[in-house]
Amino acid sequence: MSSSDTVHDSLVSRIYDINEKDFDTVAMEVWAYQYHFNPLYQSYCNLLGYSPLNVKTVFEIPFLPISIFRDHEVKTGDWKPEAIFRSSGTTGLIQSIHLVRIKSWYHKIAEKTFVKTFGSVQDYAWIGLLPSYLERSDSSLINMVHYFMHVEKKKESEFFPRISNQLLEVLEKLSDQNQKTILIGVSFALLDLFEKFDVPVWDNLLVIETGGMKGRGQEITREELHMRMRKKDPAMKIASEFGMTELLSQAYLTENTFKPASTMKIFIRDISDPMTLTSFGQRGAINVIDLANVDTCSFIATDDIGIAYQDGSFDVLGRLDLSDVRGCNLLYA
User: Fold this and answer.
1) Quick one: 110 and 230 in the same domain?
2) C-alpha distances in angstroms, 7 versus 22, 32, 46, 229?
3) What is the enclosing helix (H) or strand (E) of 87?
4) Rounded to whole angstroms, what are the CA distances from 277 to 197, 243, 289, 328?
5) Does a structural domain hold residue 330?
6) Bridge partners of 185?
7) What is the model's pLDDT at position 242?
8) Angle at 238 between CA 232 and CA 240, to 5 degrees
9) CATH number of the domain that 119 lies in?
10) Measured distance CA(143)–CA(250) in Å, rounded
């Protein structure tokens, strides 16, 4: 076993069981590991003048621009991927590529995060309304939901590429049974479903929107989306998912702000000075530490704008000007 594999295996077990107290310590060890065994990331850090000699806290770690995933293979260590996730993008744009060393690692992180927020995956029937995603076998979102369906094995669980009579009949059946159900979908499809069709809403239904109008209509705020959906039933339970191709961890919004996975921490950088982090409550561009990205790069400077709060939660307010319109995150006008 190589030295990188020895360090990797030790980090993986610590990352899965991570807690807030140990997060920064493990993050610094992941940073050192990725600096030494990821030549691309090391070159980027060196160009900025950062190395383990002068990076002493998580606040000093350089964050890799997310656009690098469009132009380069991002890998820490020497391994062959079990899966390759690609961003959805829009026509004519280059897709981001995330090489996944072990698919089961992604599944374990996703399930642990879901359970922390919503309870056992097995309690729910899963209905996926994900037009423009289903034809893509390389979607991280499809992969996650498919895994959740496999875990719970309820016969009603199914993907739907569009709104259909079959979808409405399945929802009616689940409503009649008062079955705990997750209806997960992209914004434009959920909006069409609840505004144009006679859809049942019951106490045990949870709608999870993954964002994005995907060019099917004017981008709207999350608040407006939820408000319009709740015209069907003011008591409808709606959650939002924050995830992207370049990250293996997710965050969920169930009330006012997103709560990140235990493997994730959010920082906000100054839009005009990318090496400067802002204070809690200040608006800026979102940096993510995702320890689940141990095999690629855990320190990602995204193109999203947001606010981080002292309790660890955060909000997503939009995207940087001139950024690509892509992925699963809800864009704002």
Assistant:
1) yes
2) 17, 10, 22, 48
3) none
4) 46, 22, 13, 25
5) no
6) 129, 209
7) 96
8) 135
9) 3.40.50
10) 13
pLDDT of amino acid 154: 80
Contact between 54 and 67 under an 8 Å Cβ cutoff? The reply is no
**What CA–CA distance (Å, rounded) separates 295 from 37?**
10
Both tokens assigned to 223: 């608040």
Q: Would you state the pLDDT for residue 259?
A: 98
pLDDT at 320: 87
pLDDT for residue 213: 55
Single pTM value for the model:
0.92
| Pair 122, 221 in one domain | yes
Instruction: Tell me how many degrees the CA angle 64-66-67 measures, rounded to the nearest 5.
Output: 115
> Residue 268: what pLDDT?
98
**Is residue 252 in a domain?**
no
Q: Which of 126, 109, 203 is nearest to 160 (CA)?
A: 126
Strands 258-260 and 251-253: antiparallel
**CA 184, CA 165: separation in Å to the nearest integer?**
18
What is the number of domains present in the chain? Answer: 2
- Structural domain range at position 304: 3-101+258-319
Three-state DSSP class for residue 95 = coil
3-state secondary structure of 73: coil
Measured from the Cβ of residue 85, the count of other Cβ atoms closer than 10 Å reads 27
Residues of the chain below pLDDT 50: 91, 323-333
